[in-house]
Amino acid sequence: MEMYSNNMQGWSFFFYLCMCGAICESLHYSVPEEKKTGSLVANVLRDLKVDVKGLSARRARLVSEGTKPYFQLDPHSGDVILQDRIDREALCGQKDPCFLLSELVLENPLRVHRMEVEIEDVNDNSPQFFKKEFLFEIPEQTPINTRFPLESAEDSDRGENAVQNYTLSPNDHFRLNEQSHNDGTKFAELVLEKQLDHEKETRLFLILSAVDGGIPKRTGTAQIIIEVLDSNDNVPHFDKSEYKVKLMENSQPGSPVAQMEATDRDFGSNAEITYSFSQVPDNIQRIFNLNKYTGELTVAENIDYEINQNYAINIKATDGGGLSAYCKVIVEVEDRNDNAPEVTLTSLTSPLPEDSPPDTVVALFRVTDRDSGDNGRTACTTEANLPFVLKSSGNNYYQLVTQQPLDRERASEYNITITATDRGSPRLSSSRIFNIQISDINDNAPVFEKSLYDMQLWENNIPGLLIGLVHAKDPDMAQNARVTYSLLPGKVSGQPVSSYVSINSETGNLYAIRSLDYEQIKNFQVSVRAVDSGSPPLSSEVKVQVVIVDENDNAPFILYPLQNGTSPSNDLVPRGAEAGYLVTKVVAVDRDSGQNSWLSYELLKATEPGLFSVGAQNGEVKTMRPINQRDAFRQKLIIGVRDNGHPPQSTSATLSILLVDGFSDPYMKMVDIPKDEVAVEEDRSLTLYLVICLAAISFIFLVSVTVFIAITIQKRRKFMDMSTLNFPGGPNFQENCGDTCAGTLSRAYNYEVCLAGGSLSSEFKFLRPLFPVFSVEPAQNQGNSRISSASQDVPSHQEENQLINQVTL
Ligand SMILES: *[C@@H]1O[C@H](CO)[C@@H](O)[C@H](O)[C@H]1NC(C)=O
Ligand SMILES: *[C@@H]1O[C@H](CO)[C@@H](O)[C@H](O)[C@H]1NC(C)=O
Ligand SMILES: *[C@@H]1O[C@H](CO)[C@@H](O)[C@H](O)[C@H]1NC(C)=O
């Protein structure tokens, strides 16, 4: 089936014929595109109903319409031959069907046949995508079944040869869904079938293929790049859900506790983790510091085991997207020995009586240590050498008990140091001082400072004079040491002691009650008792020896020559006596003693001065020179005798001496006898004088006694008459005064009431202190007498006697 090519003239001719309506019989042929040049398209002989001769005779020819002549008619065979390759797509584009029109012209008769050659499509084009690559950015959390339309592929071919199917390279996440546009063209869309995960695949590479329906099929591919966008789909993750750490107590602020590590598989800000406390009480948050970014837990404040032994801290890790994970940090605090033991006193017995028996509980206390374990195990000690000992009574309680007898007088208080030590390392200890006072018990009697007191008292003292004092010490305390003194009853030369001395019960001062005379009593002894005020009282006694000291109260008394006579005796001295002749000796005595009785003699006055001398010591009167004739017969000497007291007392003696020439018998005797015999003679005469003296004194004494008795009897009668009159306010000697108060000074004054004779009214004639010189001595009468209003009808006989005595005094 070849066609003739024609030219412009042919076409115009053809149109002319057509208008004439001569011909217009059309022929239809088809040929696939892309056939080789020279290929047969069709044979027109049969359709034209002409033979080969006729054909060539009638000058058959092909005239292409306008376009480039693709066909050629072979007039010898009637074949239409392809003159050039035909590309349907270039010729017609998307026009369908695609025809190439030609005129087959025959002459003689002119006949024109229309020839339509349909160009059949051949699958010579592959589907083609607009771009080689398609990029999709899909968040990983895009829901399943989300659709992503894809661009269609283009295929120039038509019909079956156009794109029929799309395929997708095998993958886990997407399938392809084909859809048709309204115009029937197909397109595909990606349908998400399985969740994307950025953490697994950040990018997917898919091959999209478009397949046409030709035979063989042609495909076009494009790459689909799916960028999986991260979304915060991952929760941070701690490497451990629980961190267990041990932390030393008192760790320095800043020391690390734990390092938390949380990871997040997301990216970017979704993986930025910050750490924070989660529901942690404020007080714990203060103690620990959490680094927000690093997750490091450090110590912020002092960690005290005693406050808390462990902490459970919830920590939250949050990523930038707000997702959180939690973990728990368990901090176990380890004890350190940072607390010293404490001594807590429960009870203390102070003051403690000194007579407490051994094992008396003095103090009860408890030792505590806030640490634990060995750090909290305590031991307790106290000083050695104490009368106290520690006893443990379990449960950290201790008792301090007495171990030995106590003596307040040795130690009146104790400061007991209790030291408690723990077993930690280093050891800590603390101590506490218990002050224990020992209270007094009257266990000491008063003790006098001396075992014997010697006191002196000058005679002729005034009554009430302080003799001296005794003092007893009592080592006890307060009442137990308050000492009072008293005199023990006793007698001094037959009279009660209390009539001689009294004692101040408080001060121990001893007072003489009466004036004493050395010449009557030289010493006496009293016993003093000291009693403390304890209960029961304790006492001790001491002897006081009172020595009366002599005073020079007596003048020398001259025994020879006698001084009372009207005519003193004369001593004879022969005129021929040599110098140094012993004339006589003045004899004097002094009733005082000691120095007061040391006598010295001196010549005060002499008729013939220079003739006689007196021995200062012995009172011997001697001649100083030989006697001459001019010396008077009668010589008178006044000799002074002086004692050695202060002040001295003296007397004088008058001595008469006769100077004789010859010796008459009596004188001779005296002269002849040797000196010794003279002395004996003198002694004899002295003895004689003494005897005479004594007799005279005795006589005077007797007389005076008699007179005294007579007067006494006289007065007694008078008194009896008065006392029977029963006057009130009479002296009451039965005053209730026991032994104990006898002799104390405050009560030592006795008073005597003398009533005016005959007057019965209470009128005092005089009232004077009286220091009694009792001759009778019932103890109860030694006490004071005082003016008493108690009526005493008749004084006892003894009282009468006393009264009499007093009155006579
Ligand atoms: C291609 O598409 C046709 C109809 O559109 C269908 O019948 C055929 O099964 C498809 N081929 C493949 C491989 O999907
Ligand atoms: C005991 O302690 C007290 C108070 O510190 C002190 O006054 C006293 O002298 C102490 N006594 C002894 C016996 O150390
Ligand atoms: C003088 O005293 C002595 C002795 O005392 C006595 O014997 C004598 O009689 C007295 N003489 C006179 C005159 O009193």
From TrEMBL:
Its main location: membrane. It is found in: Cell membrane. Residues 23-129, 130-238, 239-343, 344-448, 449-558, 573-668 form the Cadherin domain. GO terms for cellular component: plasma membrane. Keywords: Calcium, Cell adhesion, Cell membrane, Glycoprotein, Membrane, Repeat, Signal, Transmembrane, Transmembrane helix. The keyword Membrane applies. The chain crosses the membrane at residues 688-713. Pfam families: Cadherin, Cadherin_2, Cadherin_C_2. It is a single-pass type I membrane protein. PROSITE patterns: CADHERIN_1, CADHERIN_2. InterPro entries: Cadherin-like_dom (IPR002126), Cadherin-like_sf (IPR015919), Cadherin_C (IPR032455), Cadherin_CS (IPR020894), Cadherin_N (IPR013164), Protocadherin/Cadherin-CA (IPR050174). One of its GO terms (biological process) is homophilic cell adhesion via plasma membrane adhesion molecules. One of its GO terms (molecular function) is calcium ion binding. The keyword Transport does not apply. This is Protocadherin beta-16-like.
